[in-house]
Each structure stands twice: as structure tokens, then as C-alpha cells.
UniProtKB/TrEMBL annotation, chain A:
Its EC number is 1.3.7.8. Belongs to the FldB/FldC dehydratase alpha/beta subunit family. Keywords: Iron, Iron-sulfur, Metal-binding, Oxidoreductase. InterPro entries: Benzoyl_CoA_Rdtase_C, FldB/FldC_alpha/beta. This is Benzoyl-CoA reductase subunit C. Pfam families: HGD-D (PF06050). The lineage of its organism: Bacteria, Pseudomonadati, Pseudomonadota, Alphaproteobacteria, Rhodobacterales. The gene is bcrC. GO terms for molecular function: benzoyl-CoA reductase activity; iron-sulfur cluster binding; metal ion binding.
From TrEMBL, chain B:
NCBIfam families: benz_CoA_red_B. Pfam families: HGD-D. Belongs to the FldB/FldC dehydratase alpha/beta subunit family. This is Benzoyl-CoA reductase subunit B. GO terms for molecular function: benzoyl-CoA reductase activity; iron-sulfur cluster binding; metal ion binding. Keywords: Iron, Iron-sulfur, Metal-binding, Oxidoreductase. Its EC number is 1.3.7.8.
Length: 388, 427
């Protein structure tokens, strides 16, 4: 019997709600010697972690369900919330089974958190993972391939086993499959958003960061099959894209509120890691080179990446908006998020030039008051309807 | 307010900076090209090779902060859609543009011919220049300097920077300036840099003396002026640091403390502090006075290392020109990881025999600020010396609460006293 979308989403919700990461703990306990490697937003090469035989575990803050007690003693009030709730996860022992932590480059807050982690948890293999801002294969590519190689060696030391090219190619193939399925879900939602509520797609994606990729691939395929077969009422909602939410995640209620306000979310940058590479990575040849080249030539535009040419700024967003046939954009960013907020005026200019209506607001992962957001999104939806 | 009393070196510096502003604002008449670039990881010696004038938007923001113009500029930027949450240097710069882009000499800044994005130690730099590029539509040369996440630089990082210098930066500057790159010119400039760096280090290390003949934070921002801006690599910088050294030597000989803005010398030094974080510029004198009134002198600071950590031994090296530029960029203070920053602060407390660590946490600056609370606790733990934490902003006057800062400082000094009494009793 195939599972219903409801059953699949209920499973995802349970994983998402579980701040003790029981499923990942169980995975680790199932076989002696297994290791879990956490990673923060926005992008890490999960293929490497997988090829090392480890479970990549997405650590995306504590959301609105976790009370931050210790974390606030680590951060001033004008710093976003994700680092403090991440520190809270660490200090409350919720990550005590995590053997390694990868802090990818996204901004100086997460960058500095990598060093704090080294001090706080000296027994955890902690890696700041830098990606190139020069996209010439000979320059940034050569640097990046070597960085990947260093990460590979770090993982080898962590596990005591080599990460072979063959294993890496297998992992790349599995993640290609994951990327294809993730794209299929996004395409499906853009096609029939009433059958794929944003909050459900979100849970489906977040759950994928908490389980082995093999399992997630099965789950995505099952969800696609179930969702296509289901009938759901179609509302007179407008189609919108959401940007600015690539790091600290909004509370699930915020995503639901946007929908309830009359918006179908047909494109977003939530939990971008599984869509960061936009095309398949070649699963033959040198796998490290393949990963490096994919990053340089086929990855999304987002605030942690430099855009070398002025004329390309925002181009990716516009193309995605057109592809998903979004009628407007909500630029929703975490409070105090320099990357999102410094980018916002530039992206807003591009949207205006392209005639795409947009609004913006800020949130925190523990925002509780949804009424103002519902009102703002509702007014935006009404205005889109009026002018379409 | 009475005039600030200045040392001869300060006057020399003032003249240097005025000359640079004149070079920038007259560039259209002189035909010289102008670049905008940042202080940390700046490539001044390279710009000199191409005859390009160096305009530093951070320095403009500081100038505007000290001249009480930045508040208005920031509001202008916020009105045009920039978030209240982001770095105020960026907004002060963008707001200044909105108000005619007037340099401190009263003449309009020309549009830059090139944005040299030396991306060292701060994420915001990247966005800042994307924002300026949108405005100026001029060539932008990105030099990506990787962060020393694991506590040291690697060969890969260095090679990457050298390659970018060769493939991107040098050809880009040749194109902008029409001048062919001459490595011997670069070597000459690097030789000049190293000489000035030697003298700067000597000056900064005098903070180890009792009484300290320098204030390494409020005075320190003057000492680093020429070398952090448009003069590293010039003979002007050599002359400035020779003069500064002589001045400090004279104070050492006389057993005197540093000169205060009111013309007195702070020779009665009750508290010796290490300060982490940039200063506030909008209330710079008031802030300084809160220290000097209490007899507190800053013996070492990290802000004076954002444009290079020469005191840890680095010197620009004419024999390895591009490699040494790479090493310079990698080693700037905010490009170092937190364990490293904690080690540096601990070392300062010990070597400069300080009473403790004061952190001035800047609302704008995630690069400096994210993690400072923990750093302070770590340093306290390692040195047994008390720390204190104050919060201000660089150039946004809305975030300087004089009463709060003063209270904090007073209780901190009391805490140091108590600690001393405790130590005496225990002895
Ligand atoms: S939410 Fe923004 S500022 Fe905070 S860590 Fe993430 S990218 Fe950095
Ligand atoms: S964030 Fe800090 S280092 Fe970066 S530009 Fe602003 S003040 Fe300077």
C-alpha cells in the first residue's frame, strides 16, 4: 500500500519537531562505529559526508519550540537568533552524539560560531567550510577542489577509513537523484500549488536533512506519487515566491500564515542546500573536480555568493520567478541578517525593473505574532489580484 | 569645546590625509584614476604601482562620524530602503552619496574608476561593493581572501590569493590605469612598508612600559592612520613613523604618559586595559575622556590590528612580493578564528600587564562582535583578570548612550580595585 501525503508529512513533522534528533541517534546506534556530521546553512557538499559513511545532519537552529536560556548569554541582542539556538542545542546536550560539525561560509556570524564551537566542544571535529568567490575553474576552482580534498581528509581522520573515489561517485549519483526528486517536487508545486502546500513541501525538505539520502529519495518519490493522485480544493490564491530565508528559518506557522493569507508559495529559498547545485554532478571522472565545477558553474545565486557581473545580479531570482510563474515576491528575512538585508535593496531594484511586485518583512525563528504577517501578506495578495 | 591639542605627528598625519583627499577630489583634472578599497587586506603598494589614488569608504565613514554628519547620512540611507539592522559604515557611505558625496575638503568625490574589493575578514565588504557597483557601474575587482577557520593559513589559501593577484587584480588594475605592472616598483613599495611597520610595532609595544607612553586605542587610531590607509608603501609613511617614534621615545625618556586631547599627559595611570573592538566615532572625545578622567590607559588593542598584525611578526617582504601581500591579507585580525583571537587577547593581557579586558561591542559589526561575549569569558578564565562589556556603534549616534557606558566603566574600575584588594589581602 502506498502512503498518503498526510502520513508522509506526519512523519516529517515528527522528525522536524524532535529537537533530540532521535532518528539520527538511532541511525548512529544501529551499527558500531557510525558517525554523524552536522552542518549549518547554507551549503555543504553532503556527498563527501555520505561517502565517508557518515550521516549528514542539518542543524538549522532550534526553531520556535526551543527555549533559549544559555544561548542568550553568548550573543548580543543585535545578532540574529540561529547562532544562539544552535549554541543552546549544543549546551543542552542535544547534539552530544554529533561527531563533527561543518560551518559553511554564509556570513561572519556562522563563521565566528565555528571558532566558538572549537572552544566549547574541543572533542568535536569542527570545520569552517569556505567556498570560493572567484568562479574561474583555474583559480577559484583549483582552490575549492583542494578545500574539498581537505574536508575529505578530515572526514577520513574522523572515521578512520578512506573516502574512495568510487564511494564518492556513488554518493554523487544518489544526491543527483535527490536533486532530481527535489526539483520534481518544486515543479509539481509550481504546476499545482493547491496540491502541494508550502508548509508540507517545507517539512518534506527539512526532514530530508535529518535522514539518510536513500530514505529521503524514497520518501520524495512516494510523496510525489501520492500528491499527484490526490485531489485537493483549489483556492483563488495568488502565486508568490519567497526569498531572503536561506539561513535562519521562519517558524512553520509563518509559512502557514502566508498561505492562509491567500498566497500559494511556488518558489522559495528555504533550506537551500538540497537545491544549491542546479544540475546533476557528473558521476564519472574525478569526483572532487566534478563537485568543484558544479559549484562554480551550476549553483544558485544567493546572498553568500559574490555576483561578479553587475548585469547578473538578481538574474537568477527573476528566472526562477518566471519559471514558477510567480506573480509577486515576499522578501522575508531574519532580523539582523546582514546577508539578506544588505542584498534586499539590490534584489528589490531588479524586481521593480522587471515589473515584479514585492514586499518585505523580517522575522525570527521564534516569531510568535503572526497577525501582522498575515495582514501584510493578505494585503499583498489582494493587491496582486487587483492588478493582475 | 576647546581645540584638540595635537602632537606634531598628528599634524603631519592631518596634512597627509588632507593631501590624499585633494588628490582624490582633483583626480579628474590630474587624470589620475581613483579606486575605492577597504582597510583590512588593502593592497596599497599595488595601487601605488599603477599611480591609482586610494579612497577608503570606511575612513570616510569615520571622518563623517567624527564630524557628526553620519547620523543624517544613515537616516538618508534607511529612508531609501536600507535596513536599520545592517552595518552603519555602509549606510553612512550610501547616505553620503545621496547627499552629494562631499569629501572632508568640501569638494565632491569623483566616482571611482575601480572598486578594489579586497575581501578580508568581513562579509559586509562584499555586499558593500555590490551596492556601490550598482550605483557607479564601474569595474569591480574581487580579491577573495579565505578565512583562517582552522587557526592558520594554508598553502592552498596563499596560492589562491596569489593566483587572483596575477590573474584578476593586476591585469584589472593595468586596464583601469593604462600602466604596465612593474614588479620592481612593487618591491620598492614593500621595502618602504616594512620600514614603517618596524616603527609602528616599536610604538605599539611601548604600551608594555609603566607608565605607558601611548594610549593604544584612542591614541592608537592615530598611530595606525597612515599605515592603514593610503600611505603604506610610501616614504611619507616612513617619515611619519620616524617622527612618531621620536615623539614616543621622548615621552619614554621623560617618564610621561600619552597626550590627551586637552593637552595634558596621562602619566598617573590607575588602570591598564586591553580593548577589543572598534571605537565609537560619533562621541570619540567624550568616550576617551571617560577613560582618562578615571586614569585608565589602554595598553593594547585589537582594533589597531584590523589593517595588519605586524606585532605578531609579519612584515611585507620585497623578496616575495605577491606571497607577502597574500600573507598580509590572511593575517589581519578579523580574518583570524576565535580561538586565535582569544589567544591574542590573553597574550596582550599578560605581556602588557593589563588589569583586564574591556570589550566595546559594536552593533554594526558582526565580524568583530559575534562571539565577543564568549571570548571575554575565555580570556577572563585564562588570565584571572576581570572583563567588561560595553555596547556602542561605530557611526550611528543613536547607539551611543553616554550614561550607560560611563556607568559600566565606573563599575568595571571598581571591580578591578576590588580584585586588587583581594589579591593584596591574599598575598
Ligand atoms: S541568519 Fe543571516 S546573519 Fe544570521 S547567521 Fe544566518 S546568514 Fe548570518
Ligand atoms: S561589518 Fe564591521 S568590519 Fe565589516 S564593514 Fe562593517 S564595521 Fe567594517
Amino acid at each position: 500500500m502506498t502512503a498518503s501525503t498526510e502520513a508522509i508529512i506526519a512523519h516529517c513533522q515528527a522528525l522536524f519537531d524532535d529537537l533530540d534528533f532521535s532518528a539520527a541517534r538511532a541511525w548512529k546506534a544501529a551499527e558500531p562505529g557510525r558517525k554523524v556530521v552536522g552542518f549549518l546553512p547554507v551549503y555543504a557538499p553532503l556527498e563527501l559526508i555520505h561517502a565517508a559513511g557518515c550521516l549528514p545532519l542539518g542543524i538549522f537552529g532550534g526553531g520556535d519550540r526551543m527555549e533559549v536560556i544559555h544561548g542568550d548569554a553568548f550573543y548580543q541582542s543585535y545578532i540574529c537568533r540561529i547562532p544562539r539556538s544552535t549554541v543552546e542545542l549544543g549546551l543542552t546536550g542535544r547534539l552530544d552524539f554529533v561527531d563533527g560539525m561543518i560551518f559553511p561560509f554564509v556570513c561572519d556570524v556562522i563563521r565566528n560560531l565555528s571558532g566558538m564551537w572549537k572552544i566549547m566542544f574541543p572533542d568535536v571535529w569542527t570545520k569552517f567550510f569556505d567556498t570560493p568567490q572567484n568562479f574561474d575553474p583555474e583559480v577559484g576552482g583549483a582552490y575549492y577542489a583542494e578545500e574539498l580534498q581537505e574536508m575529505r581528509e578530515g572526514l577520513e581522520r574522523l572515521t578512520g577509513r578512506p573516502v574512495t573515489d568510487a564511494a564518492l561517485r556513488t554518493s554523487i549519483a544518489l544526491y543527483n537523484e535527490n536533486r532530481r526528486l527535489v526539483r520534481a517536487v518544486y515543479d509539481f508545486r509550481a504546476e499545482a500549488p493547491w496540491k502541494a502546500p508550502a508548509s508540507e513541501v517545507y517539512l518534506l525538505m527539512r526532514a530530508g536533512l535529518l535522514m539518510p539520502v536513500e530514505e529521503h529519495n524514497e520518501m520524495l518519490a512516494a510523496w510525489l506519487a501520492a500528491a499527484s493522485a490526490e485531489d485537493r480544493p483549489r483556492r483563488d490564491n495568488v502565486r508568490i515566491a519567497i526569498y531572503g530565508s536561506f539561513c535562519e528559518q521562519p517558524p512553520l506557522n509563518l509559512i502557514k500564515s502566508i498561505e492562509m493569507a491567500g498566497c500559494y508559495v511556488v518558489e522559495d529559498d528555504y533550506a537551500l542546500v538540497n537545491r544549491f547545485l542546479t544540475e546533476d554532478v557528473p558521476a564519472d571522472g574525478d569526483p572532487v573536480q566534478a563537485l568543484a565545477l558544479a559549484y562554480l558553474t551550476h549553483s544558485v545565486e544567493t546572498s553568500c555568493k559574490y555576483v561578479p557581473r553587475e548585469e547578473d545580479k538578481g538574474r537568477f531570482h527573476i528566472a526562477q520567478i518566471r519559471k514558477a510563474r510567480a506573480e509577486g515576491v515576499i522578501y522575508a528575512s531574519p532580523s539582523f541578517c546582514d546577508p539578506a538585508l544588505l542584498d534586499r535593496p539590490m534584489i528589490a531594484h531588479r524586481l521593480t525593473e522587471a515589473g515584479i511586485p514585492h514586499i518585505s518583512f523580517k522575522y525570527a525563528e521564534n516569531s510568535g505574532q503572526m497577525q501582522p504577517i498575515r495582514e501584510q501578506a493578505g494585503t499583498f495578495a489582494d493587491s496582486l489580484k487587483l492588478w493582475s | 569645546m576647546s581645540d584638540v591639542v595635537k602632537e606634531p605627528s598628528m599634524l603631519l598625519q592631518k596634512e597627509l590625509i588632507a593631501r590624499n583627499y585633494d588628490a582624490i577630489t582633483s583626480s579628474r583634472e590630474t587624470g589620475r584614476k581613483v579606486s575605492s578599497t577597504f582597510v583590512p587586506g588593502n593592497l596599497n603598494e599595488l595601487l601605488l604601482c599603477f599611480g591609482i589614488v586610494n579612497n577608503l569608504p570606511e575612513i570616510n565613514a569615520i571622518q563623517n562620524g567624527m564630524r557628526k554628519l553620519s547620523g543624517d547620512y544613515i537616516m538618508t540611507a534607511e529612508k531609501s530602503g536600507h535596513s536599520e539592522d545592517v552595518c552603519t559604515y555602509v549606510k553612512a557611505d550610501i547616505g553620503m552619496m545621496g547627499k552629494g558625496n562631499i569629501a572632508p575638503n568640501g569638494k565632491p568625490f569623483p566616482n571611482p574608476d575601480v572598486l578594489l574589493l579586497s575581501y578580508t575578514g568581513c562579509y559586509t565588504f562584499m555586499k558593500w561593493f555590490e551596492l556601490l557597483r550598482e550605483e557607479y557601474k564601474c569595474p569591480t575587482l574581487m580579491l577573495h581572501v579565505p578565512y583562517e577557520g582552522d587557526g592558520q593559513s594554508t598553502k592552498n589559501m596563499r596560492d589562491y590569493i596569489v593566483k587572483q593577484l596575477k590573474e584578476v587584480i593586476i591585469p584589472g588594475l593595468e586596464e583601469v590605469s593604462g600602466v604596465k605592472f612593474d614588479i620592481d616598483r612593487l618591491r620598492e613599495a614593500l621595502r618602504n612598508s616594512a620600514r614603517a611597520e618596524d616603527d609602528l610595532v616599536w610604538v605599539l609595544e611601548q604600551g608594555k612600559r609603566t607608565p605607558s607612553p601611548i594610549d593604544a586605542y584612542f591614541g592608537g587610531v592615530y598611530y595606525i592612520g597612515p599605515i592603514f590607509t593610503a600611505f603604506r608603501g610610501t616614504t611619507d609613511a616612513i617619515d611619519y613613523y620616524t617622527a612618531l617614534r621620536a615623539e614616543v621615545q621622548a615621552r619614554v625618556d621623560a617618564g610621561q604618559g600619552p597626550l590627551m586631547p586637552d593637552g595634558t599627559t596621562l602619566s598617573e595611570q590607575k588602570y591598564r586595559l586591553v580593548v577589543e573592538g572598534p571605537p565609537n566615532w560619533t562621541h570619540f572625545r567624550e568616550f576617551w575622556k571617560m577613560f582618562s578622567d578615571e586614569g585608565a590607559v589602554v595598553v593594547a588593542s585589537t582594533y589597531t590590528k584590523v589593517g595588519g598584525m605586524y606585532d605578531l611578526g609579519f612584515r611585507h617582504d620585497p623578496d616575495n612580493p605577491l606571497e607577502s601581500l597574500a600573507d598580509y591579507c590572511l593575517g589581519c585580525y578579523t580574518n583570524r578564528n576565535l580561538p586565535n583571537r582569544v589567544e591574542i587577547l590573553t597574550k596582550y593581557i599578560e605581556e602588557y600587564q593589563a588589569d583586564g579586558l574591556l570589550t566595546n561591542s559594536i552593533k554594526s559589526c558582526n565580524s568583530f562582535s559575534a562571539g565577543q561575549l564568549m571570548m571575554m569569558r575565555e580570556v577572563e578564565k585564562r588570565t584571572g583578570k576581570p572583563g567588561a562589556f560595553i555596547e556602542t556603534d561605530l557611526v550611528d549616534p543613536r547607539y551611543f548612550s553616554a550614561a550607560n557606558v560611563k556607568n559600566r566603566l565606573e563599575s568595571y574600575f571598581q571591580m578591578i580595585e576590588q580584585k586588587r584588594r583581594g589579591a593584596t589581602r591574599a598575598a
